[in-house]
Amino acid sequence: MSWIHHEDLGSLFLLALDNAMTHGPLNGTAPNPVTNREFSKALGRALHRPAFMPTPEFALRLALGEVAEVVTAGQKVLPKQSLAFGMRYRFTNIDEALADILK
Predict the structure, then answer these.
(1) Which DSSP helix (H) or strand (E) runs through 71?
(2) 15, 31, 66, 82: least CB-packed within 10 angstroms?
(3) How many whole angstroms separate alpha carbon 102 and alpha carbon 24?
(4) pLDDT, tens digit, for every residue of 22-76?
C-alpha cells in the first residue's frame, strides 16, 4: 500500500513547479510502502486502539466490488522520479506520519 503525508505531497507539488527539469508524472507516494496489515496496525497504534481483526476479503468484495482488488492485493508504487529530482520527504515512516496527522 502506497501512502504519503499531506505535507510531503505539498512539497512534491512545489518541487514539480520549482524544478524546470521535472517532466512527466511524479508518483505522489512516500518511499516506504507498507502492507495493508502494517498500515492497519500502525493506525491502531496511532489511535491507541487494537487492530487485530482483519476484514474478510469477501466482505470487501461485497462492499467495494472490483475496487476491492486494490485494497486486498494493493499496488507497490515507488517515487523513483521524485527521489531522482531531489525530493526530501519529512515523513518516510508510516507511524510518524499517522502520529503527526492524528495529534
Answers:
(1) helix 68-73
(2) 66
(3) 33
(4) 888 899 999 999 988 888 899 999 999 887 767 777 787 888 888 777 767 767 8
Say if residues 57 and 68 touch (Cβ distance below 8 Å).
Answer: yes
To the question of pTM greater than 0.85 for the whole model, the response is no
Query: And the C-alpha cell for 35?
Result: 502492507
Take residue 44 and report the three cell numbers written for it: 491502531
Count helices and strands (H / E) in the chain.
6, 0
Rg of the chain on CA atoms, in Å: 16
Task: Take residue 93 and report the three cell numbers written for it.
Answer: 515512516
What cell was used for 33? 510502502
**CA atoms of 88 and 83, how far apart (whole Å):** 7
Predicted pLDDT of residue 81: 93
| Cα gap 7→4, rounded to integer Å | 8
